[in-house]
Amino acid sequence: MSNVLLIYTGGTIGMKEDPVDQTLRPFDFDSLLDEVPELRKFGTSIDHVTFDPLIDSSDIEPAMWQKLAALIERKYDAYDGFVVLHGTDTMAYSASVLSYMLSNLSKPVVFTGSQLPVGRLRTDGRENLVSAVEIAGARERDGSAIVPEVCIYFNSLLIRGNRSTKVDADGFDAFRSPNLPPLAEAGIDIRYNKDIILRPSRGLLSVSSALDTRVSILKVHPGITEQVVRDTLLGEATRAVILETFGCGNAPSRDWFLDIVREAADAGKVLLNVTQCLRGTVNMDLYATGRALHRAGVLSGYDITLESALGKLFFLMGKSNDNEYVKAYVEKNLCGEISK
């Protein structure tokens, strides 16, 4: 029998409509098997932990990620897998950063949630929860986990956490992995794409809790002003800047723009180029504007998502105060976040 720990951080999936005033309130997870009787059919023992207070996903802060990572570390030896119930708005951010914080992971950490509460008639939460628990407890014949990764399960798809992004605000098909196929697809059976599932390296779980959040994001757009670019790239409190650029990594070629980029790079700041496009990769050697950014000191994020780029920088900057260390690792594939 597999042992799975269910961690409820907050979010719609754990809510139940009050029969009197129709407001949404957290349901009692002690009665989980009554709410979702399908879970009784698995050969899985399920325990649960509920965050107190519960956290709306719009209020997620690094302290919550640290608390979650510490909880998984404490309970790691007692369980075969973990299911994290989380609000959808920032789930991709949380799954991304946890993938960096939990090194040498050999057990599944499956994030899931829902667009409708579990108690609603047409809820997507019940299927999401049932399949997430099944995946978290799934093992090979030798006892090893089938999916030893931080991932997201939503609407029949299991996707790598640091490849995920939310693409629909209110549809059940809320999450996608634009640049990597799903790790698994659920139909009559759950079909695992084992060729791309990461296998753990040798060694024990290592948790990195230090995070440095001094990162700014500059979304390049037509009509962007010199003052906006200057304030973002040269802010004294900023160690790193993610430049969300056009297409395959292009930005304005005007002298003032490139002068500010060079000034920021000369000051030692980490400048990471991430495309605004949902699918595709940064290639700064393709066009003159991209080459100008590269020469100015901008590094490539390749096909990383914005959510994953942010988590990666938080993680690397938390490991060292030396920006040269961050620059040395930010372009490397650390845990399946880029196709390189």
List keywords for this structure.
single chain; 340 residues; alpha/beta; Rossmann fold; 2 domains; 8-stranded mixed beta sheet; 4-stranded parallel beta sheet; 9 helices; 18 strands
Annotate the secondary structure layout:
Layout lengths: L1 E7 L6 E3 L6 E3 L5 H4 L8 E7 L11 H14 L5 E5 L5 H11 E2 L5 E4 L12 H13 L12 E5 L2 E4 L4 E2 L8 E2 L7 E3 L3 E3 L13 E2 L7 E5 L6 H8 L6 E6 L9 H12 L3 E6 L12 H9 L2 E2 L5 H14 L3 H8 L10
Parallel strand pairs: 1-4, 1-5, 5-7, 7-8, 15-16, 16-17, 17-18
Antiparallel strand pairs: 2-3, 6-14, 8-9, 9-12, 10-11, 12-13
Helix pairs in contact: 3-8, 5-6, 8-9
What does this structure look like?
The protein has 2 domains: 2-207, L-asparaginase, N-terminal domain (Rossmann fold, 3-Layer(aba) Sandwich), CATH 3.40.50; 215-330, Rossmann fold (3-Layer(aba) Sandwich). The radius of gyration is 21 Å and the shape is globular. The chain is of the alpha/beta class and 340 residues long. The chain contains 9 helices and 18 strands. The strands form 5 sheets. An 8-stranded mixed sheet has the order 4-1-5-7-8-9-12-13, sandwiched between helices. A 4-stranded parallel sheet has the order 15-16-17-18, sandwiched between helices.
